[in-house]
Design goal:
The complex is a heterodimer of chains A (113) and B (114). Chain A is built from no helices and eleven strands. With 113 residues, chain A is mainly β. The relative contact order of chain A is 0.35. With 114 residues, chain B is mainly β. Chain B contains no helices and eleven strands. The chains are: A mainly beta (113), B mainly beta (114). At the A-B interface, strand 4, strand 5, strand 9 and strand 10 of A face strand 4, strand 5, strand 9 and strand 10 of B.
């Protein structure tokens, strides 16, 4: 399976703390994307990192990619209660149909006020 | 600019019935992909459409079929519904050939089969 796997499955922190989620995958990729999902609704795109990139920032988000280890991490700094959601990594596998994404099971993040 | 829109938002059907879900892609996007997300799981790829044809299919039975219209909107049809088809169905759009750009998702249709 080319599916990514997030770790941990659940994360509970206080507001102001940092949250780190990890993702591992199995095959070569074109890119890796992180999405957020609130209460089982639609996916909101957070950040895309290409296979030739090692780190990207967007606001309070920092994503790293290590293609040699086939892993990525998402760091949310100074977390807020509104960050409570499920976070998914999705890989766009090299050689697959363009735009077909493979998702993991997600990390459920809870941020307590 | 309207994003990806899906209808209906919720649907309850009986086993054996048929259902049609609809998706309008983001403006400027011509490729539509459908995903099924069971409770507690990540989305699973069903199929992808562009130029009004199914281009690739995930591991789903033939009961799942689709269509894309000339205006790029799409439908997902599921026949002979099973209890296990209960899930959130997500539509994603992207511009064709843009293999390193993000996919935009709709809010999904929650299908419950009873």
């Amino acid at each position: 399976s080319q599916q990514g796997e997030e770790d941990p499955q659940a994360l509970s922190i206080q507001e102001g703390e940092n949250a780190t989620m990890n993702c591992s995958y199995k095959t070569s990729i074109n890119n890796l994307q992180w999405y957020r999902q609130n209460s089982g609704r639609g996916l909101v795109h957070l950040i895309l990192i290409r296979s030739n990139e090692r780190e990207k920032h967007s606001g309070r988000l920092r994503v790293t990619l290590d293609t040699s280890k086939k892993s990525s991490s998402l760091l949310i700094t100074a977390s807020r209660a509104a960050d409570t959601a499920s976070y998914f990594c999705a890989t766009d596998a090299r050689g697959s149909t363009l735009g077909r994404l493979y998702f993991g099971r997600g990390t459920q993040l809870t941020v307590w006020p | 600019d309207a994003g990806v829109t899906q209808s209906p938002t919720h649907l309850i059907k009986t086993r054996g019935q048929q259902v049609t879900l609809r998706c309008s892609p983001k403006s400027g996007h011509d490729t539509v992909s459908w995903y099924q997300q069971a409770l507690g799981q990540g989305p699973q790829f069903i199929f992808q459409y562009y130029e009004e044809e199914e281009r690739q299919r995930g591991n789903f039975p033939d009961r799942f079929s689709g269509h894309q219209f000339p205006n790029y909107s799409s439908e997902l049809n599921v026949n002979a519904l099973l209890l296990g088809d209960s899930a959130l169905y997500l539509c994603a759009s992207s511009p064709r050939g843009a293999w390193n750009t993000e996919a935009f998702f709709g809010q999904g249709t929650r299908l419950t089969v009873v």
